[in-house]
Fold:
Amino acid sequence: MEPVFDRTGQLVAWLRGDYLLDPQGHHVAFLRNNWVISYPRAYVGRYNRGWFRDLRGAAVGFIHAARGTPPLPATEPAPTPPRPEPAHTLPLIGLPPIALRPMPVWSRVAWDVFVGVAVEEAAPGEPAAAAASAAGERRA
Structure:
């Protein structure tokens, strides 16, 4: 298993073949033709050259072999990989969205939101409806 890190260099997941597992070994997403597909949300981004990128092309996570931009942060030492749970049944998925070019920037989307296991919180002063609308745009 290969450790996956976020923009701060913290371990956020494990890549095991075509499956993404959370740090405890639970399946949260999978890869098909370089697309990252979460179990609850379908297409969430792309995996290419060691980078996990959101649908806008901004980096969300990486493995040690990542090449290109943005610059890699220092990473924490990876712990021993967990014992993975059995894989979920793969959901039916439609056609992928149009792929965008990778951007040399980090996404504002946190890893847990990217893979669909958490919901993005509204920024202070931002109405909850605006955050929900933004979340809906990401799912489209």
User: Anything to note?
Assistant: The longest helix spans residues 128-139.
